[in-house]
Specification:
single chain; alpha/beta; MCP/YpsA-like; Rossmann fold; 2 domains; three-stranded antiparallel beta sheet; 17 helices
Length: 456
Amino acid sequence: MQYETVDAVITPQGSMDVLSRAEVAKLLDTSQGGLYTTLRNCALAVLNVGSELDDGKELLERYQSFDIQIIPEERGIKLKVTGAPASAFVDGVMIRGISEHLLSVLRDVVYVSDKIATNPKFDLVSSEGITNAVFHMLRNANILRPNTNPHMVVCWGGHSISRSEYDYTKEVGYQLGLRGLDTCTGCGPGAMKGPMKGATIGHAKQRIRDGQYLGITEPGIIAAESPNPIVNELVILPDIEKRLESFVRAGHGIVVFPGGAGTAEEILYALGILLHPDNAALPFPLIFTGPASAADYFREIDAFLAATLGAEAQQRYTIIVDDPARVASEMKAGIIEVREYRKQYDDAYYFNWSLKIEQEFQQPFVPTHENMRNLELHHDLPRHTLAANLRRAFSGIVAGNVKDEGIRAIEKHGHFEIRGDASIMDPLDSLLKSFVAQHRMKLPVTEYVPCYRIIK
């Protein structure tokens, strides 16, 4: 099938539209080197906004002729795109929001390579060093807002959700917006778009003109979850672990909507951190919510967490069903507690330095068949370590479901094998089967073929 494409030359609008000759030379060297594939794939994902597609491999195959080049000029740079999705243009001119997102891709991919990955000043081995690198990435993206009270609510949830669940996410976002709270999501469709859409109306009613709609993603997932058009600040972190750390460092509370394997991964990441003894007294509001039709979904999530992580984990979150106003009210109250805690311990409002995150949550996990097979999933592990390994298991499933490299690995080597105690594997298997039955693994129009096998 042929898809309509457009060729265009774009002048970036923003912080990188005026560059020195040395900076332009670095960009040229970078674009022609090992980073080019990352730049191209992320740029294509941004240009594919609005597409009903959640398969990174399919997107790359659909637009095989797509190319992006950097053209140096005396006053900066221009970007030349060929074979770009036509939906990114109106009357031959690229939509401004998409152009801004394209600039974010260029900014983040180049910055991580030039200033972080190859810079000996950054220690990407120690926990403190990784957190320092995450801070610099977010600061470079200019999304940290000092001298303002805590206000950022991270919203997690699936891209494949029902219409009633989507409408519910909008209503929660609206209630958050009415209370002056901003939203941060994984930047894609579904439960990542709905809260932002609702918040725009709440902000409009309160005459809030500088609302922040922050999207945080990474190169492996962006092709399957293209940024939605409401995102006005986009940040691309180099891997899923730094993406997740960005959520909990920059956010002041988390609302979790129904979702699939990716949402379960996020839940386990947050709980694994909050279960660390050093974080026991740290306030961090965490609310699971959805419409009445999602009550069974959260019962299954709650039962899985009780069976694997125990009652201590259950005490760290609240489940609220079918009550958007209460969700927003309790989140606002929780963020006020966060503010008082940060004030008492002299921690920044805009970046949570006090949160203890172990290296097992920070070091990139590559979901190869061997790594998935060797995951330790046993009850004799500390609770936060078990949560970290369960998070990795779900991360592998996400990779096998939607990421280009993961899909190709499954096609070549077959299913991922996940092994562990029967008392963990049984509730894990039950939860995954419920996700499949509820069409939470893929978009409803596509048939899901499991990429994993549970072995007890």
